[in-house]
Design a protein that fits this description.
Elements (H helix, E strand, L loop, with lengths): L1 E6 L6 H10 L3 E7 L3 H11 L3 E2 L2 H6 L5 E4 L6 H10 L3 E5 L6 H13 L4 E4 L6 H11 L6 E9 L15 H4 L9 H11 L4 E7 L9 E7 L5 E7 L8 E6 L2 E6 L4 E6 L11 E3 L8 H11 L4 H23 L3 E2 L2
Parallel strand pairs: 1-2, 1-4, 2-3, 4-5, 5-6, 7-10
Antiparallel strand pairs: 7-11, 8-9, 8-15, 9-10, 11-12, 12-13, 13-14
Amino acid sequence: MIRVAMASFWHVHARDYAKQVSEHPDTVLTAVWDEDAERGKREAERLGVPFYPKLEEMLADGSVDAVVVDAPTNLHRTVLTTVAEAKKHIFTEKVVTATQEDYDAVIEVVRANNVVLAVSLPRLYHGYTLTLQDVVRQGHLGTLTQVRTRLSHNGASAGWLPERFFNLEQCQGGALIDLGAHPMYLTRLFLGMPMRVSAHFGYVTGKPVEDNAVVVFEYESGALGLVEAGFVTEASLFSVELHGTKGSALYSDRDRTVWLKEAGSGPDHRSEWTAVGIGPDQPTAYAQWVAHIQQGTRAEDNLNAARDLTRLMEAAYASVTRKQPVVVQ
C-alpha cells in the first residue's frame, strides 16, 4: 500500500485528488500539510488524518511514501523540490511551473532522488482524444492545417471561483494558465510544438488576471493552432476541431461524439458527417502514476508533455507582455 499525503488544498481540484487517493485500491491518505494552516486543519479533520503545520515535518513522518501537490503555482518549485529531496514520489496539478527554468530545476532534483513524478493532464487520456488521434493516424484528414481547441466556464462572471484564483502572484496568470492548459496541451498533441506563439487577453470582470484568452500557434508548414479559454462564458462547451487537406474531425461536450467528414467523390466533392465510435479512456493520470511507482518506471511521455506545456505558457504570457509574437524556446 502506497501511503500518500496531501500538500495543500489551494487548488480547486485538490479534493478531487484526495478522493482519488482514497478510492484507489493501492493507495491510502495519511497526512495533510497546507500553507494555509486553517484550511489544512479543516481538510485534515474532514479526512480523519493528521495535519502538519510544517511541510518538512510531514515529509519526515514514516507514514508518507508519496505526495499530491496542490499548492499555489508560485510555490510549486519550492514545494516540489522539497518533497523530491525527501525522496517522496509526486503527483501534481498542472502547470508544474510557470517557467521552463523552474521546470528544469524541479526535474533535476526529481531525477537525482529517483522520484516518480506525474502531472495531471487528464484530457490526454480520454477516449475522444485517443479516437481523434486514430483518425489522424489513419489519414482521414490528410495533412493537418488547423486545430482549434476551447475550454471555458463562467467562474469569474458568475462568481463561483475562489478569490485566490484571481491572485496574480499565486496563480502566475488567469484563465489561460488554468483552463487554457488543457486546450494548449491538446493542440500540442495534434500539431506538435509551434514555431511562434501570440496571445491576446481580455479582462471582462476587471480582475487582476485575464478572464478571457486566445492563443495562436504558428507552424512552418503554414498550419495554425487556436487555443481559447475563459472564465466569463455562460454556456461554452469544451470542443476540439481538427481540419486538414482531406477532411475534418470534431468533438464537443454537446453530444460527446467524434464526427468525421472526408472529401467526397463526384463533381461536388460533398460527403456527409459520420459519427465515429469513441474508444475507452486510458487509466487516469493518477492511476498511471501509481502504476509507475509500483513498476519502478517513469512517466516520460507525461513529463515531456508537461515541460512543453510550461514552455508554451511562458511564451504566451511573454507575447502579451511584449505585444508581439514570441519564438518558442
